[in-house]
Amino acid sequence: MKEFFIRRWALVLTAAVAVLSGCGGSSDAPASMQVRSSVESRVQPDSAVQDVARVKSRSAAAAPKASVVSLGALAVEKTEASASVGPRLIGAGRDVSATKSGSATQSLWQWKETPAGGAVAAISFRAEGAYGVRLGVLVKQLPGSATVRVYTQASPGKVFEISGHEILQLIERNQAAGDQSDAARTWWTPDTGEGEATLEVELPRSVATTALNISVPTLSHIFVNLAVPTEEELRAQQQSTKDIGDSDSCNLDATCHSDGASERNAVARMVFVKDAKSYLCTGTLLNDGNSTGKPYFLSANHCISDQTVASTLRTDWFFRSSSCNSGALQSSSSRKVGGAQLLYASAETDVALLLLSDTPPAGAVFAGWDASTVGLGASIIGLHHPSGDLLKLSYGTVMGQSACATTSGTSFSCSGTSGNYYRVNWSQGTTQGGSSGSALFRSGKVIGTLYGGSAVCTNKSSSDFYGRFDVAYNAALKNWLAPTGGSTARTAVYRFYNSKTGAHFFTASAAERDFVIRTFPEFGYENIAFYAYPNESSGKDPVFRFYNATSGAHFYSGSVAERDFVIANFPEFRYEVVSWYAQTASGNGASPIYRFYNSKTGAHFYTISAAERDFVIQVHTDFRYEGPMYHAWTTQ
Description:
- The chain contains 8 helices and 39 strands.
- By secondary structure, it is mainly β.
- Strands 5, 8, 11, 13, 15, 16, 17, 18, 19, 20 and 21 form an 11-stranded antiparallel sheet that branches. Strands 3, 4, 6, 7, 9, 10 and 12 form a 7-stranded mixed sheet that branches.
- A hairpin with a 4-residue loop joins strand 20 (about 340-345) and strand 21 (about 350-355).
- Mean pLDDT is about 90; it is low at about 1-35 and about 80-85.
């Protein structure tokens, strides 16, 4: 037992936090699965635990005065190059000289003290003529305890909020995938939907403003109006100012048809950033062999083929008309901006399988799939967002198989009567840029993903080509969608920061997480800290939780010997529960959980982020580094 247990913790939490004592628990892990050739769909129930809202309401008076960075009109045509393959381009990258470096950006922050004794500042970025702005925030040094907000000056009381800890985790995920460039260290803010975006950073009282080193060397200027008005908005303005409803006239409104009525709830419009440019594609939520509810998401390799791009993903759910051919967006449409983990990408069938970071909304469908080969003449449908438009439906037939290969960045060729792609002709509807990555359905199940083609409204003999799901499934997708042997799902472990005391609290219970959010405003929710296992299994070790009745703080240990020592020698430490299961040893894709002891307060700090560990070692000299405590996971 280390010497810090001889000391009395000076850090005091409110006594009411004691109600956290004894909370926890989780559901049983899924049963073992066997390889199968097809899976039925499932619906996301209303009872599914949703992510804590990232958009917060606050007093507009709380917004600090922002420095202003202005860019003129975009000096490029708002047109796409003619291409037979590729996502739809909707935004251009623009250099921002005023914030190109950390030192230049630091000079623009106008820091003011917060009521909690910290510091807050903001910078407003304006791009003339933009329908939306995404800021590329290059992170060199960012405290995990920082709070980052994005909003518009027109609505400073409605903010998107994310912790520095979560941004650091996103960056480490990009780097772990092999990208060590500045692109991997860039966090792309959500699109504001306007030509202005304000970036705000709040630091806790324990962190000096000089410890922050971030910049905004680029932004993505959205030159296409991605918004679709609701019926009420249409009535109010009498006409639509949207650009997005410009798909070809032969496209069928999916809301008008009973075919695909269930499958359409599995489809989402995708918006992502690549090389500072913004693009549109289509993706489909997939069920797995044991209906675990993991948000596997299928799209095209030519849309997203690396982790850095996957981290920028936004998905628009239920993005379809409110009634048949209304041209208005239904009110249940939902947006998720948490990005995704790229699990697999291959040019062989132009497939990308992702695991979404956000929980799909209630009512979303995890689509079924069929990994058998589809024969000539099979009737199929496509559900997609051509040009990013409201969801459309296409009817067609599988005409055969082909071998396809990319010939340049924007074109490809297909030939032969066998290969990894289905050749499809449409009898009604077509596809366009933005449809890329959308699923091909036969009898309600996914059988392919759209690569590209020459299909147009005026020529029904032209073909589209879809990567064969059966080929991709046997090559790799089965490892996630239907793994052999036992499979135990990992659970999220959530992290809170107490702004009054500087202590952190962790829980693997979504119910306890929600209780803390509702009850204790001083506990700032910092989202998911890492992933662990909810149940005991071979090779997994328990992590124990104690509540200090004297200080009100919690202590976590992955050591049985340490647990027993605390129980025997420190009666003020009340043993509560096994919080989750992890590994004392490395391996199995696990990362170390680092532990610090604060010599001034007696508190402990834990992080899975090596970047946050290094920041604490460099900046907080009163934190004594104790090394890895145990090992957990950065992904599910």
